[in-house]
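Subject: sequence -> structure tokens, single chain

Hey, anyone have a minute? Need the predicted structure for the following. Not urgent.
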Amino acid sequence: MDVTVNFKDIKKSDKLRDYVKKKLARLDKLFDKPTEARVVFSKEKDMRVVEINLTSRKLNIHAKETGEDMRSTIDVAVDKVKSQLNKFRDRIQDHRIRRKPREEVIGEEIVEE
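Reply:
Had a minute. Here:
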């Protein structure tokens, strides 16, 4: 997974960059295609903001989270991304199971009659 990290109104930190890359690397096993991740750290008033955008071939996932502590905010944002990814994968899998070739459907109707 190709991860790009940007900082807005916050000092650049290698620790935060490594932490978010480590967290997103865990999600890499859920993808079968090459994926690109863009992470933006910013500050609004007294709150810290983390935005994660994942893009792949047919997949676009966006998660935004605000909090007081940056590490816990990263954890929550990554959890949001993971849940969205699981929903997407389940939806794709359900469509594959439901969709049957036309000959099998016709064959089942004849058997039921």
